[in-house]
Give the backbone structure.
Amino acid sequence: MPGDLDQKIGPYLRPLYDSMEAILPKDTVKKLIENGIIEMAPLAYMRGRTLNDCVVILDEAQNTTCEQMKMFLTRMGNGSKVFVTGDVTQIDLPKRCKSGLVDALQVLSNVSEIGMMQMTGADVVRNPLVKKIVQAYENAKEE
């Protein structure tokens, strides 16, 4: 895509802006980003960083490779909390490539300091019809 970094990743960040603007005024979100309180960066830009005293969220993690997930998780510095979200039913990676999220759930399952939570259709907070759609897919998978 043509343009600078912001123009290239802007479409991918729209869901994050939507979520922030659902709980904070748009001007507040803009100021927090301008002042560096909130930073959004592509996963590829995390290599070599140490993220101290912050909250870090990796969204859509089902589409990371195992190597990307390991790289991301090892960026955690002192005083930081890391949240990884993803839907293992919506993996867009090539079939031959294992999801980093699926791998991390297996590899890290016995690390007592790591909490894991699995959500179902009952947790959907979008349009009520989405709950029914998710439940229908869950039911079809069980058959």
